[in-house]
């Protein structure tokens, strides 16, 4: 502590008065005198190191308002801390000196604040110093100052993701839909870095209870991955993004959107439905589907019933030719008449449910014709009538029912 009449306090008051009068040059001179005095008493007062860092930060602010603040470097740790016998060069950013002084003075909160100031200063330049801002954010993560603060780490990961996509964008901007990414190593590396950092930030957001922010990160990842597809090892990453997005929607009580994402995951044939655990994943999908539809007021859906699966493991494949051949073999074993009767029975049950529950509640709702309706029309007309005539006959047959 200093006395009110001490030289240090008087110099600090002169610096504050110069700042209030917008005399930034004199304010910087007084602050340099304060640093010199703090170094003189360093042997008796080891706690002067954070004060020196504060003076360096104030000098940086004065230089910023004067337009003399040097640009940050890509290696902020290489600048070192303040030294009494080494005069600071004008090409050295004073904020970097303050950052290293705060670090040596064991003041982690001020290190975080100064690093964020450095980051914003680099991004606000024209053109922006993206490489320096990226190095500062990565240095903040590697330094361990954010180890106990998950929310700050999530914000830094989110920031780094934005920087990586800004430095090397994967597709042109202002397009309604992203183009397909080329098989280029540099572009794919940039996209993977972007995705990895966003997923790490989303996980930390989720641990902090910020599910909305986590969902925002995953939706951004999904927007970029649309241009990648499921080629190579991207399919595992794509599946992780889809399933986690669905879980977040369910956690936020957005059951419709969660069910839509899960259905897309099933339709796309992601790896989880092609492994030995496909049956368990399909049962989970059906449970979530039934729960979501019940909350929406639907007790039954035409595609909800599934046949009994006796085999301990099965796979879901999107290969149309292979699935058609296997379906044809199974149909030939069961018999065409039995399959038609079973399908018509299921359609009649769903028809009764929709007519008694859904269509009375929502008169404007219309449903496409069932498979049995087309079979009846083919039987009546032999499949030679026009669509208009078939629709008219369909209304007649429905009225007769």
From TrEMBL:
Family annotation (InterPro entries): TRAPP_III_complex_Trs85
PANTHER family per the UniProt record, alphabetical: TRAFFICKING PROTEIN PARTICLE COMPLEX SUBUNIT 8, TRANSPORT PROTEIN TRAPP
Record-given protein name: ER-Golgi trafficking TRAPP I complex 85 kDa subunit, putative
GO CC field: TRAPPIII protein complex
Upper classification of the organism: Eukaryota, Discoba, Euglenozoa, Kinetoplastea, Metakinetoplastina
Domain of life of the organism encoding this protein: Eukaryota
């Amino acid at each position: 502590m200093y006395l009110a009449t001490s030289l240090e306090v008087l110099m600090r008051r002169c610096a504050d008065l110069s700042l209030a009068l917008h005399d930034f040059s004199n304010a910087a001179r007084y602050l340099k005198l304060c640093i010199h005095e703090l170094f003189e008493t360093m042997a008796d007062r080891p706690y002067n190191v954070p004060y020196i860092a504060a003076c360096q930060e104030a000098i940086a602010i004065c230089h910023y308002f004067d337009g003399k603040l040097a640009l940050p470097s890509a290696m902020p740790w290489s600048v070192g801390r303040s030294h009494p016998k080494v005069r600071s060069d004008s090409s050295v950013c004073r904020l970097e000196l303050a950052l290293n002084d705060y670090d040596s003075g064991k003041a982690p909160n001020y290190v975080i604040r100064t690093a964020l100031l450095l980051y914003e200063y680099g991004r606000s330049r024209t053109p922006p110093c993206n490489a320096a801002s990226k190095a500062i954010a990565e240095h903040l993560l590697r330094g361990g100052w954010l180890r106990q603060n998950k929310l700050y780490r999530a914000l830094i990961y989110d920031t780094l993701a934005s920087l990586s996509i800004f430095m090397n964008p994967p597709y042109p901007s202002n397009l309604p839909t992203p183009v397909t990414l080329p098989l280029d190593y540099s572009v794919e590396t940039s996209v993977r870095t972007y995705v990895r950092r966003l997923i790490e930030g989303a996980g930390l957001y989720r641990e902090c209870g910020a599910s909305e922010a986590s969902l925002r990160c995953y939706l951004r990842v999904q927007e970029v991955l649309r241009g990648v597809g499921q080629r190579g090892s991207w399919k595992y990453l794509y599946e992780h993004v889809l399933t986690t997005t669905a879980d977040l929607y369910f956690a936020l009580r957005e059951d419709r959107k969660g069910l839509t994402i899960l259905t897309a995951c099933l339709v796309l044939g992601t790896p989880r439905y092609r492994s030995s655990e496909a049956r368990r994943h399909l049962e989970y999908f059906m449970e979530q589907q039934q729960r979501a539809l019940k909350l929406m007021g639907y007790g039954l859906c035409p595609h909800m019933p599934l046949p009994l699966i006796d085999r301990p493991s099965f796979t879901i494949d999107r290969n149309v030719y292979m699935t058609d051949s296997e379906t044809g073999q199974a149909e030939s074993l069961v018999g065409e008449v039995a399959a038609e009767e079973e399908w018509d029975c299921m359609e009649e049950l769903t028809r009764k449910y929709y007519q008694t529950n859904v269509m009375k509640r929502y008169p404007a709702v219309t449903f496409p014709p069932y498979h049995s309706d087309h079979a009846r029309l083919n039987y009546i007309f032999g499949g030679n009538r026009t669509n208009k005539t078939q629709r008219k006959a369909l209304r007649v047959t429905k009225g007769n029912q």
